[in-house]
């Protein structure tokens, strides 16, 4: 049989000679025969092994040997930043073979896009979002996709577990229906189950599937250091990083804030030529950092995930990880940036951990990486908002036949279990909401509401929250990963990462900009936090460093083994990484404390219970998603007794209150019931609220959502459960509890892990619909703000602010207020209950004038009026001649109401009422008269 290089077209072989390539890499030799055999292939290998050419060369060879028309090859990458590099790299080969190459993404100029139409390319490099636009909107160019014969998807590991991956899988299904069964080649870093990844994206294809990978792995050399419990945390962290810096170093962090904060401290230390690279920077600033890296004009770049993928960053000597990442996969990807060239055999890195626990976790991650164990991707199951966007996208071309759309969905891996009834329910909702409209039996087209939401013209800053740019429709990437922090008068204080906001709640205090702020409200719809400054409050410092890794099961299994080995054999059991002196000392101290106290270390197969003050600690290597599942289920099941939890990958804590035993409640929850309980609890969490905000517009939900919107609400809950919770692992932990695999240690000093856990921020159930909750509390009764705050667990200021909103016209739970003549308190009640409230014995006197014949002047100003109207009335008129009284008042909705006695010039004690409806007006006037007369008679209080 010919060798792989001999299988290539002669033109390709000549270009190899021109390149000076005397031989192919291992991955290229393996991939060429499989691709040229017409199979759908996934190529997996670490960074720097020549995967791009492994996919490209055999396809270019087949293109050169046949008469292909534009667009023959579609090259898809999830990152815009890769496109420019790929364009130059692919063009070198393609143009010498006579093929035109074009690129399309949001940053490509209009002139370059126009050129693509004039001379269609044989090879198009694009992103999933730009492909979506082509198929949905680019009527002229879409015709060229009928010629499609090959598709390459690069960096597929980056999107396989995301909605972008779902979107791409749907687009590939649409392309197969449009162009036929093209050949698919995926390029990926090492993943846990490459055949599963290939199945996801080639589900509707009839071609044979093949996995191409390399067995050899590069050597990993890692140093683990520890910051320790230092008061000046960020300076200490910067000092640690500075010690290891050498040109050129990439410093990876887990948040944008950490990147900026470390850069600030390194500059203060006098470190020169350090840049920052993250998603919130402009494209120009990011490109400047990338150029400096390639040209070797920088000491270090501090970055987030933005430099984790295959962007050409030149000759990086070292990688430093500030805090370990969550997964083995991410660790390998980041370390791979220091060995981007194929001839580099060693991946050189440093992990800066917070403490001994993180140092051990970092060692466990490294152990799994050395042994070649990588996480399997988690594939989203049937996300309906992505399905909706694809259905509406098809409708942008014209009419859509629902039967044909269903066939496309069913031929996509993520929707293989979609029933026709589910699709019909979604279509009905879209028609009801105006996103789609019926155009014939079983056919739909785009409805008018679609163009009201996704607009071609630029909208002003004062637009409705739901008005979006037209281009944003084609993306599944959530708009906001941060919350703006604003004062009550609208002044911007700063911003917080959404993942940190999930652990906050109204009433909590934070430090931001060197000042202390108390959270008044969290607006999940507008992604903003309303705060007020309070100087004396003890604040939760928003240490993004506190966002430790949400450990994967693969990492936790490795950590389980590492803890047992170190406990039994000592620190020298760790041989696969180097521990700094600080790290070694902290780990030894951690393990020794467990030995002396004789408390067991948490593990995968045993749950350890401790009590610290009023908190019950449940320790076990379960992962934070499972801890969150158990914690919120407990919060929901015992919400009358307890209010907060703390979570980590090694356990959770929950507050103990009189009458509440968390362990007893936990033991009563059956493993099979945890999913339903978690689904109920999730409706009160920020994870659900933010998911709902992200998906609701796809369904056309722009107004307040009611019971009829259950499909969208349940979908948001289901997606939040998939992404942020771990029901399977929570079931496993519950099973351990039920089978008695529990060690209880509630006496003596707390263990190191228990102490660490109670230092984590608290999490509480959010009030999902405060108006509805207040309305339920008010039903049939009138309460003060203080009483309602006590009943709902909400801060008084939030209750009062919300009640003021609920008294306005248009509120679905409209309220009114009156003064209790027995106590002098303002009370609130539902407008629909006004007659019932007036008749209650405890409030009857509050609406009963002492003298019916006394005359008063009503001063009323309408909601849209600038001037007051004056109405002369007596108490008897209101009681006995109500209809005649109401005819004298010129407004249906009153913004401000004052009742003044004619016989008394003093305005002292005259109550004012706001937003009074015509229904409640007689009773409010009677309340004012009763108050005034009692004040005058000194019978008040």
From TrEMBL:
Pfam families attached to this UniProt entry: DEAD (PF00270), Helicase_C (PF00271), WHD_Lhr (PF19306)
PROSITE patterns: HELICASE_ATP_BIND_1 (PS51192), HELICASE_ATP_BIND_2 (PS51193), HELICASE_CTER (PS51194)
Keywords linked to the UniProt accession: ATP-binding, Helicase, Hydrolase, Nucleotide-binding
Keyword Manganese in record: no
Any one GO molecular function term: catalytic activity, acting on DNA
Domain Helicase C-terminal: 240-387
InterPro entries, per the entry: ATP-dep_Helicase, DEAD/DEAH_box_helicase_dom, Helic_SF1/SF2_ATP-bd_DinG/Rad3, Helicase_ATP-bd, Helicase_C-like, Lhr-like, Lhr_WH_dom, P-loop_NTPase
Helicase ATP-binding domain sequence ranges: 1-285, 32-209
Family: Belongs to the Lhr helicase family. Lhr-Core subfamily.
Listed name of the protein: DEAD/DEAH box helicase domain protein
């Amino acid at each position: 049989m010919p060798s792989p290089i001999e299988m290539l077209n002669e033109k390709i072989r000549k270009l190899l000679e021109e390149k000076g390539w005397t031989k192919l890499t291992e991955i290229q030799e393996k991939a060429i025969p499989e691709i040229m055999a017409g199979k759908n292939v996934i190529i997996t290998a670490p960074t720097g092994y020549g995967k791009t050419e492994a996919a490209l060369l055999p396809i270019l060879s087949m293109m050169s040997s046949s008469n292909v028309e534009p667009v023959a090859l579609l090259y898809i990458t999830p990152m815009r930043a890769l496109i420019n590099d790929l364009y130059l790299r692919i063009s070198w080969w393609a143009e010498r073979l006579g093929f035109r190459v074009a690129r399309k993404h949001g940053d490509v100029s209009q002139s370059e896009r126009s050129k693509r139409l004039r001379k269609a390319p044989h090879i198009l490099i694009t992103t999933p979002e730009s492909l979506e636009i082509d198929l949905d909107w680019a009527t002229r160019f879409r015709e060229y996709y009928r010629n499609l014969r090959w598709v390459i998807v690069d960096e597929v590991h980056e999107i396989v577990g995301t909605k972008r991956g779902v979107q791409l899988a749907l687009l590939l299904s649409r392309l197969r229906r449009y162009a036929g069964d093209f050949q698919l080649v995926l390029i990926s870093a090492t993943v846990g189950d490459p055949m599963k990844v290939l199945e996801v994206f080639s589900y509707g294809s009839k071609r044979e599937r093949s996995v191409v990978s390399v067995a050899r792995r590069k050597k990993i050399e890692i140093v683990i250091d520890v910051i320790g419990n230092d008061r000046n945390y960020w300076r200490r962290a910067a000092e640690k990083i500075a010690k290891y810096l050498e040109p050129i170093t990439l410093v990876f962090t887990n948040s944008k804030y950490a990147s900026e904060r470390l850069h600030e401290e390194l500059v203060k230390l006098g470190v020169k030529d350090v840049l920052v690279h993250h998603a919130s920077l402009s494209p120009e600033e990011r490109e400047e950092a990338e150029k400096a890296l390639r040209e070797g004009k920088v000491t270090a770049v501090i970055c987030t995930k933005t430099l984790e993928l295959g962007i050409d960053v030149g000759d990086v000597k070292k990688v430093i990880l500030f805090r370990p990442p969550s997964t083995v996969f991410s660790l390998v990807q980041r370390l791979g940036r220091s060995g981007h060239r194929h001839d580099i055999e060693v991946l050189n890195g440093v992990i800066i951990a917070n403490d001994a626990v993180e140092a051990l976790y970092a060692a466990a991650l490294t152990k799994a990486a050395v042994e070649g164990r990588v996480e399997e991707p988690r594939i989203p199951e049937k996300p309906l908002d992505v399905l909706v966007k694809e259905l509406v996208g098809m409708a942008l071309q014209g009419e859509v036949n629902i039967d044909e759309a269903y066939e496309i969905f069913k031929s996509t891996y993520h929707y293989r279990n979609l029933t026709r009834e589910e699709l019909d329910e979604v279509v009905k909702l879209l028609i009801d909401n105006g996103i789609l409209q019926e155009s014939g039996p079983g056919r739909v087209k785009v409805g008018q509401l679609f163009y009201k939401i996704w607009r071609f013209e630029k909208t002003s800053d004062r637009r409705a929250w739901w008005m979006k740019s037209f281009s944003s429709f084609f993306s599944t990437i959530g708009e906001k990963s941060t919350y703006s922090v604003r004062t009550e008068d609208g002044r911007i204080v700063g911003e917080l990462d959404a993942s940190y906001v999930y652990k906050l709640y109204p009433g909590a205090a934070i430090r931001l900009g060197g000042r202390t702020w108390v959270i008044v409200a969290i607006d999940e719809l507008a992604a903003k936090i309303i705060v007020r400054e309070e100087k004396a409050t003890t604040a939760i410092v928003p240490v993004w460093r506190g966002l430790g890794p949400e450990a994967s099961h693969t990492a936790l299994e490795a950590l389980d083994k590492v803890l047992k080995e170190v406990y039994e054999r000592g620190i020298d059991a760790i041989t696969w990484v180097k521990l700094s002196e600080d790290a070694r000392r902290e780990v030894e101290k951690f393990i020794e404390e467990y030995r002396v106290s004789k408390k067991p270390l948490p593990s995968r197969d045993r749950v350890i219970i401790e009590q610290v003050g009023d908190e019950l600690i449940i320790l076990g290597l379960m992962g934070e998603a499972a801890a969150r599942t158990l914690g919120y289920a407990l919060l929901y099941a015992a919400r009358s007794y307890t209010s907060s939890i703390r979570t980590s990958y090694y356990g959770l804590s929950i507050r103990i209150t009189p009458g509440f035993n968390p362990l007893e409640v936990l033991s009563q929850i059956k493993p099979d019931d945890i999913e339903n309980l978690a689904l109920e609890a999730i409706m009160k969490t920020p994870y659900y609220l933010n998911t709902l905000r992200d998906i609701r517009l796809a369904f056309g939900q722009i107004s307040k959502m009611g019971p009829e919107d259950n499909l969208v609400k349940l979908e948001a809950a289901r997606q939040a459960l998939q992404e942020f919770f771990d029901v399977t692992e929570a079931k496993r932990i519950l099973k351990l509890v039920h089978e008695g695999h529990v060690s209880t240690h509630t006496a003596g000093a707390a263990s190191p892990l228990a102490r660490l856990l109670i230092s984590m921020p608290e999490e509480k159930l959010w009030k999902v619909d405060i108006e509805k909750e207040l309305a339920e509390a008010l039903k049939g009764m009138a309460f003060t703000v203080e009483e309602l705050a006590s009943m709902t667990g909400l801060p008084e200021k939030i209750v009062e602010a919300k009640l003021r909103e609920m008294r306005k016209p248009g509120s679905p739970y409209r309220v009114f207020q009156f003064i209790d003549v027995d106590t002098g308190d303002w009370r609130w009640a539902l407008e629909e209950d006004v007659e019932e409230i007036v008749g209650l014995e405890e409030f009857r006197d509050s609406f009963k004038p002492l003298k019916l014949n006394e005359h008063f002047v009503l001063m009323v100003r309408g909601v849209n009026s600038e001037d007051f109207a004056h109405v002369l009335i007596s108490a008897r008129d209101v009681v006995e001649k109500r209809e005649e009284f109401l005819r004298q008042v010129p407004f249906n909705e009153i913004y401000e109401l004052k009742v003044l006695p004619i016989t008394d010039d003093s305005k002292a004690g005259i109550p004012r009422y706001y937003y009074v409806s015509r229904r409640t007006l007689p009773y409010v006037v009677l309340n004012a008269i009763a108050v005034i007369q009692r004040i005058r008679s000194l019978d008040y209080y």
